[in-house]
Each structure stands twice: as C-alpha cells, then as structure tokens.
Amino acid sequence: MTDRAETVVVIAKQPRPGRVKTRLQSRFSAAEAAELAAAALRDTLAAVRASRAHRRVLAWDGDPAGWDDGFEVVRQPSGDLGRRLAAAFRAARTDDDAPVLLVGMDTPQLTSALLDRRWNGADAVLGLSEDGGFWAIGLRSADPDAVFDGVPMSTDRTGAAQLARLASLGLSVELLPPLRDVDEPADAEYVAERYPQLAFSRRHAAIVGGRDRLPADRLFDELYAGGPVSSAPSAGRPESFLAGLARWIGPADSVDAMVVSRCEPPVIDIGCGPGRMVDALQRSGRAVLGIDISRTAVALAARRGGQILRRDLSTELPGEGRWGTVLLLDGNIGIGGDLPALLRRCRQLVGPGGLIICEVDPDPELAERVELVLAGAGGRSVPVPWARTGIRSLQQVSADLDLMTAEEWRAGGRAFVSLRAAT
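Given the sequence above, the corresponding structure tokens read:
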C-alpha cells in the first residue's frame, strides 16, 4: 500500500481583480490583491511540481492558459465549496485507490516535503490552518460526497467539523502540520516576513515597498474620531468625503425615519458607521444588526446600545439568506466598486421576497467606478475601489439578478430605491 500521496490536486481559480483575495482589499487594491493571489498560486504549483507525486491535477475555475504546465486540468462545477471539493476528488481518483492529497492556493509557504509526508497507514490526512479551516485534505478510498456533504465551509470551525466528519465515517486520520492561510493583510505580512524566498513575498515587498499606505479602516477610525480626513480618486483632486459626516454621527433625521418605516425586519445595515440607523430601527421595535469595518464606528454604535459587529461584507455573516431587509445607505452602494457583485452579495443575505433598500446618487444617469484614496493626519490609504451609481444603472443591474424595483423616492435632496428579491 502506497503511504504517500501519488496524486496531488490544487483547487484554484484564475486570479482576476475583484474575484480573488477580496479580504486583502482593506489594504491593497483589487489589482494588487490579484497579483498577490497569482504569486501565491505560482509558489503552490512550484511546490507540487517539485513533489514526488506521479500525477498532478489542477481543479480550475477560469481560463487555465499559462497555469497548466505539468498539470491535468479538470473544471470545477458550480455550487458550494464542499461540492467542488468532492468533485475534485472524484476527478482525481484512480482505480487502485491510491492516496490523493488536495491543497488550495492560500498557502504559498507550502513545500514539497509537506506534500511528500508519509500517511503512516492512515485512511485520510488533514492539515489544519490557523484561522480554523484546513489547508490540505487527503483521502484513500472514502466517498468524497460523504466526507464533505453538510460540513460548514469558510468558518472558524470548519477544520474541527471536517476532522469530526472523517472520524464519524470510521476513518483513521493523520494530521499534517498547521499552516497559516493568507486571507487578511496581516496574514500576507506574516508569510512575507518569514518566507522571503517566495514569489509571493517578493511581490508583497514590491507592492508595499516605498509607500506608507494604511488600511482604509484606519482612516475611517480617524474620521469617526473627529480627525480631518479627505478623499480623492487615486488620480484626482481631493474632494470632501466628509459632507455626510454630521449626518452619519448624529441621530436619525426625518428622511432616515422614512427609510425606517419601509424596513421589513429583521434588518442588516451594511456599513452602519456609528449606528444612527441601527439605533432608529431598534427604537421602532425592529430587530436589526449593523456591520462595519471601523473599530471606532463599532465602538460608538455599541455605546448607543446597538447590536453591531466588526465585519467585512466578504466574510460570512449571521443569518445569511434570512434577512428581511438589507440597508445600503450613505454611499454604501459603492462598496467594492463592483455594483453587480455587491447586489449579488446582498441577494444572498435576504430571504425570498426580502428587500434591499439603496441610497443612490441623485443623478439618475450616473454610473462610474473610481479608486478613492483617503488622507488623514496618520497618512494615506491604499486605493479603495468605489462606485457611484444613479437609479438607471442600479435598475439595469438589478433586473439581471431577479430584483424588482418596489419603490423609488426622494427626500431632503437624497434619492432611494427599494428592490425586492423574487420569491
């Protein structure tokens, strides 16, 4: 019986801006995050090529040109991560049930020695990651559907849940050394400092070298603390990003009350800032949760007694698929600079027939994408992808996502659109 992986599978997707490493975009632009993803993938593929595996498989999403040298390419199916992992194992399995090891593209520090480790007769191997997930999983003959079906993915308990599933199937498990996934800017810095020989580390150094750019949330912290923060497109004249600050940090006004009256609970307020809408919704008797990336904003909102989490929209959120209303106010329709992607994400949050209430630009024809740079006393931010959208652009995009315009209204110089998800 072969006691090391004879087939190594890398499950990955084409590193395109806005589609990979979105959590890195609190410090890096979408293009820079994609460059880091590409470098991490190159390091991973190099480690696999240097391993003793007889067969190398790339389970790929996107165009594999330029990435498939030395690899057999299989396409990832649609569906959740568990379904795609199971499909990758089925595609890689041989008749003799030789060990198959699968890794992702998030651990550029991976080595051929880790890939070639002996399984010590185990039925499966599992490499846990420091964020609670896992960076590698290997199987001999277990049914991959039984291994992955129903295991919650992309949480801080995924690794533990996956280990428990393997045990429940009666499989003996050999644990591989833990590794740190590169998901957040701090992860990227950690790996780059400790493994300077990597292509990933060289790209990271090239991007951050010679600049003193801060994560965007640091500038928002400064803003909500009363600091003088301005903004500009990455190649443009500074503009007042603070025009709405007095409204953001103050109590809800009569225009906000009109929004509150249209909300169907429970409500999730995206980019809630210091929590004026969370406070107003709670006072109205509606169940509400606010999320924001700024520590200062979350602290200010919590002082008001609001239910607030410091979260990024790209991470898993409580109650996905069960919210009655998603709020995108105060310019938050621009988050990420990609309106279709933002609306798709909000569509995932609401339940059937749920509402997405958006504040849009008063110019109905406006549709532009910029990269903002925030500047404060503490320095300048990395470019932040942002969109400015009027109602016409919003309606064109929402129609393709089974979102119907339920209502549009103007008040106090502000413009709003309510979209209802199809049932």
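The domain at 7-208 is CATH 3.90.550.10 (Spore Coat Polysaccharide Biosynthesis Protein SpsA; Chain A). Try to locate this feature in the token string yourself.
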